[in-house]
Automatic annotation (TrEMBL):
Ranges where the PAS domain occurs: 131-202
Alphabetical list of PANTHER family matching this protein: BIOFILM ARCHITECTURE MAINTENANCE PROTEIN MBAA, DIGUANYLATE CYCLASE DGCP
InterPro entries assigned: Biofilm_reg_signaling, EAL_dom, EAL_sf, GGDEF_dom, Nucleotide_cyclase, PAS, PAS-assoc_C, PAS-like_dom_sf
Lineage: Bacteria, Bacillati, Bacillota, Clostridia, Eubacteriales
Listed transmembrane segments: 29-50, 62-79
Native source species: Clostridium muellerianum
Keywords: Coiled coil, Membrane, Transmembrane, Transmembrane helix
Protein name: EAL domain-containing protein
Keyword Membrane: yes
Pfam families: EAL (PF00563), GGDEF (PF00990), PAS_3 (PF08447)
Coiled coil: 90-138
Keyword Membrane found: yes
Amino acid sequence: MNIKKFLQNADVLFKSKIQKKFVPLKITMIYLMVGFLWVLLSDQILYLVIPDAHIRTILSTFKGWIYVIVNSLIVYFLIKEIVRESEFWFKKLNGSYEELEKTYEELSDTEEELRVQYEELQKNEEILRESEERYKLALDGSNDVIWEWNMNTDKLLFSDKWTNITGYNLDEYTSLNSIIEDLVEEDKYDLISNIENLKNNKSLFFKSKFRIKSKYEGYKWLYIRGKVLKGSQGKAIKVAGSITDVTETKKIQDEISYRAYHDHLTGLPNRTLLMNKLINALANRKSEKNKGAIIFIDLDDFKKTNDTLGHNYGDELLKEVSELLKKSIGEKNIIGRIGGDEFLILIPNMKDSSYAESLGKKIISIFKNPFQIEEKQIYTSASIGITVFPDDGEDINTLLKNADTAMYKSKENGKNKYCFFDINMSNDIFRKSLIEKNLRFALKNKEFYIYYQPQIDLTSGKIRSLEALLRWNNSELGVVSPGEFIPIAEETGMIFEIGKWVIMEVCAQNKKWKDKGYDYETIAINISSIQLQNENFQSVVKNAIEETGINPEFIEFEITESSLMDCFDDNIRLLNHFKSMGMKIALDDFGTGYSSLNYLTLLPINTLKIDKSFIDRITMSSRDKEITDGIIKLAHNINLEVISEGVEIEEQLNLLKNMSCDIVQGYYFSKPVSTDSMEKFLLKENK
């Protein structure tokens, strides 16, 4: 519908409506005018037109009818015109009404459409407002910086979070080049490389990490991400993205990484990091002439410290040892803790093995003095194995195995020593593994037995006491020397169960012989430090005495100096308890351990046993002869008896008699013998 046309028609209709109000008046006025003119002019017109008076008289008679007829015709034509015009305008009006109705419907539809569009517009405005609010809230609540970089102008824009994170105002970095200049040097390459890829259309996205000095303190680690926006020609023109402060995350990652490659207790590199360093050292040897080395360090008897003093003391000891080792190895060498009480030193480059040997000696010297842990002084030592590469191997597993082998050889040689790997050691390790494997089943398979060796009174020449000696005969290995299997039993902890069996077996045999009236004082049983430090050892001894019925006065425990010094105070209390039961205590191998006169008077002992190494040399070495004589005199001065073991020749016996030694023991009189043989010996003595 044409609105303009509709308005024009409406205007015409309005005017027509106004005109219709004057139609009756118009007809009346015409009627009056015609009548007035008729009255005034009809007679003159007749007189002028018709000269005949008679005719005029006749016509005058009809003048009134003529007037009526004329007026009627005028009125008729007027009314007809009015009716025609009325019909025209009625049709016009009816058409306008229909058109108006249609227009009204169209306007109604348009109004509804406008209303829907208005409501939709309001809804979209609300959504837009909420979206803007969410965006603002996200910006305000997010830790990220929103950034944009114009690649053509190098203009750089940041959101307000940039200031919160770095402390820099938004106008302090207005170009990408300006920010790159202030990055940590090693972080620049990655960011520049990514930007170049964007410029050359090699990538649409990029991410990078870099450090920038903060205005607050230190450096901030930032993680930047961006996406390229291309222009109409498909060329990158702009990059937009986000920047996240990952400083705390990086610290956590660094801490996790540090913990993954460092020992949590000592802070030293752990096994993983050391292996990586060793791989690099093997790959990067400067020349074929240069060598490298691995020094494997194992603390001797560390388990005893943990078991007796507790893990707190053990941990503190490890820390102290770590610090001393770090100070001793030099800057170019690397030390790490690879587990428990084991340390490893990597020498990446050296001219020859003498350097490793000098370092081994230096490490041994660290352990000369006791470690002060809180109120306790703890003595410890280290066994060291050294392997040289490429001489002893060029792969990690071989070198570690060789270093471990050399370390165990140091332990076998008496501990607190260093030893270089030798190819012959591999055979020793194989035999050791066989011994350990079979030792685990020796008790169950009843492979152990006891031999006895007499101890002779030098005054009477008769048997004073006996020493019980453990023996092992294995179906695979044959007869295994105690010197081989006892250290392995101690290392593995099997010595406690084995020792328990020995105590019970010897007490039972002792009881049988005493019941038969054999004349000897005691049977000595060797006790390891592992047994002493076991909380159940006292119960083991008590049970053996009660079950066999042996008098404790017929039992003697032999303890070495080194065993006694481990957890000295606890051992003294335990030995005092045994002595209070009537048992005797002998200090074995005197002269090979601490040999301190300061503590000798504190020990609850009855007897000193001079080590065989001195007796072997008293006929050849005046020094050993004087030492042996001095030990005997010292012992007598503090009311201790002396046993010299290892007497094999008469000359040794005579010297010991002259020194007033009390008791001797050795092959000169008898080798260790079986139970039956020893019983025959005792039976012969009693006759």
